[in-house]
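Data card: per-record layout.
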Amino acid sequence: MNPGNDLDVCVHSNGYAKSTAESHDAGSHGSDCVFHGEDDAHGLVTGDASPILSSVRTVDHQGCSGYSYDGEYINGQSERNDGGRSGSRANPRMRSSVTSLPSGGKSSTRPSNQNIDIVTQLRFEAILSNLRASGTRRSLSVGSTRQSSAGRKLMLDYLMEREFRRRDVRDRASVQAAQGEEVLVTEELKKEKAALNRYVKLENEKVNKVVQHRTVTESRLAMARRRRMQMERDRQYKLDGLREQWEKRLELSGSRTVSTARGVRPSFKI
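The structure for this 270-residue chain is written out next.
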C-alpha cells in the first residue's frame, strides 16, 4: 500500500471518525483504534469508495483483530496513544483496528462522502459491526468469558423472574376478575331473591287482607242472619202465647161474653 493513499480512520466511543494520517510517518501502513468497553458504538465510515473492496480477511494477531481492503493486513497491536484517548483507561476490554481506506492519493482529516452511495455506506457499517463482534469474541479471556457467562445467566434469571412475576400478576388479575364477576353475579342473585321475596310478601299480604275481609264479612252476615232468626223465633213465641191465652178465654166464657180488655177489639180473631 502507498502511504500517501492511505486514510486511517479511528472510530471512538463518542461516535465520530478521526483521521490519523497526519500523525503517522511516511513508512507506516496502518493505524490502531481502541474501543473502550462493550458499549462503544461503531462508527459510520465515509470516504471515496471507488475501489470497492474485493475481500475482507480477519486474523488474530497478538490478541487483536486486523482487517484491510485489497487483501492487505494491518497490524492491530500498536502502542501509540491516539490523542490521549486510548491511554485514558488502564484496562481496556477490547481493542480492534480499523482499516485504512484509499482516498485517491489525497490525505485529509475529514473524508469526502460525495462519491459514496447509500449502499456502500451501509456495507461499510455492516463490515464494521461484524468485525467488531468477531473481535470481541476472539479477544475475550477466560475470566472475562466466565464473567460474561455469569452476567448472561444473571440476566436470564432476571428475565425469567420478570416473566414469572408478569404471569403471576396476570393470573391474579384473572382470578380477581373471575372473583369479581362471581361476586357481581352473587350480588345480583341476592338482589333478585330479595325482590322476589318482597313481591311474594306483598302478594301474600294482599291475599291475607282479602281473606280477612271476606271472613269478617261472612261472620257479620252470619251474625245478622242469626239475629234475624232469633227475632223471628221471639215474635213467633209471643204470638203463640197470645193465641193460647185467647183460646183459653173462649173456652171459659164463650165468644159473646168475652170481656174486651183495653186495647183489644171484640172482633179480634186469631
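Known properties of this structure: Confidence is low (pLDDT under 50) at residues 1-113. Residues 3-140 form one domain.

See the next section for split statistics.
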